[in-house]
Design a protein that fits this description.
This protein is of the alpha/beta class. Helices cover 29% and strands 28% of the residues. A 7-stranded mixed β-sheet has the order 10-9-8-11-12-13-14. A 5-stranded parallel β-sheet has the order 1-4-5-6-7, with helices on both faces. A two-stranded antiparallel sheet has the order 2-3. Strand 8, helix 5 and strand 9 form a beta-alpha-beta unit. Helix 1 packs across helix 8. The relative contact order is 0.13.
């Protein structure tokens, strides 16, 4: 598909998602803008935009995945540089929005980091945010600028539909994932099940009970992100123990920190399907992991925003 881009259009990328940004530029039929990111001798970030952006509508592609602190600072400095260089609009494309798990005060004296990052992006000069599968939908309300949240469910659902599995049940790994599981189940015309668990502390989950019929079925666990893989592997073990024929898992954001890879390899999960909102290093690309690209979806969103067309059809 040929996209119509005006002369004012420019797209840049920083260090978090260079492969994804290159794929997006190829689909759009444009070249990535020229900029360099280097370090001073003490480790501070030095940014240089190597072409004029005066009056331009700029898109900056950067996930805030690990090392999140580095990538957030790169993004903030880039936005500031663009603003000072008189860019007309600064659209920030954040495939993975980090620091989103602290979206409310669950206990006394806790920060709300999702709001803090939103404030920093706005203060730096961002005029719009495009992202995917926020950890909590209310994060959109933390911004006073437009936020377009794209969904990974259609991409993941299409993959499993093409796979041709029979006797499917879609599994939500916790209460908060029921809406997401329902969306996938509707697309696959399948029932859902729920894993009722208790989380005694961060990154530690204890499986308590399975609600729904999973015996003899191909179970597909869906979540927005997988971090240490503790929840997903415990869920897979519980499903197999309760009689599931096979277990698949999928998520939009493959954080995969700590012991995640070894846990997935040792688990009964047949296949873990993820997207490239986070660029995985070679050592994490094990045979069990299948990566799908979100580039076509992000490109379509950018095209609609750039040409002032409705983005809402992409949410359906």
């Amino acid at each position: 598909m040929a996209y119509q881009l005006k002369d004012c259009f420019k797209m840049f990328t920083l260090n978090a998602n260079r492969k994804l940004a290159a794929e997006m530029a190829q689909l759009l039929g444009c070249e990535l803008g020229k900029c360099s990111v280097s370090r001073f001798s003490d480790g501070e970030i030095h940014m240089n935009i190597e072409e004029s952006v005066r009056g331009s509508e700029v898109y900056v592609v950067q996930s805030t995945s690990q090392p999140g602190n580095e990538y957030i600072m790169e993004l903030l400095i880039m936005i500031d540089a663009l603003k000072r260089a008189s860019a007309r609009r600064i659209n920030v494309v954040i495939p993975y929005y980090g620091y989103a798990r602290q979206d409310r005060k669950a206990r006394s004296r806790e920060p709300i980091t999702a709001k803090l990052i939103a404030d920093l992006l706005e203060k730096a000069g961002a005029t719009r945010v495009v992202t995917m599968d926020l950890h909590a939908p209310q994060i959109q309300g933390f911004f006073d600028i437009p936020v377009d949240q794209l969904l990974g469910v259609p991409i993941l659902s299409q993959y499993f539909e093409n796979k041709g599995l029979e006797d499917i049940v879609v599994v939500a790994p916790d209460n908060g994932g029921v809406v997401r599981a329902r969306k996938m189940a509707n697309r696959l015309d399948a029932p859902i099940a729920l894993i009722d668990k208790r989380r005694p502390e961060a990154n530690v989950a204890e499986i308590m009970n399975i609600v729904g019929n999973i015996e003899g079925k191909n179970a597909i666990i869906i979540d927005d992100l997988i971090d240490t893989a503790g929840t997903i592997t415990l869920a897979a073990n519980a499903l197999i123990e309760k009689g599931a024929k096979a277990v698949y898992a999928c998520c939009t954001h493959p954080v995969l920190s700590g012991l995640a890879i070894s846990r997935i390899e040792a688990s009964p999960i047949k296949e873990l399907v993820v997207t490239n909102t986070i660029e995985l290093p070679e050592e994490k690309l094990i045979n069990k992991i299948t990566t799908l690209s979100v580039a076509p979806l992000l490109v379509e969103a950018i095209n609609r925003i750039h040409n002032e067309k409705a983005v809402s059809p992409l949410f359906e």
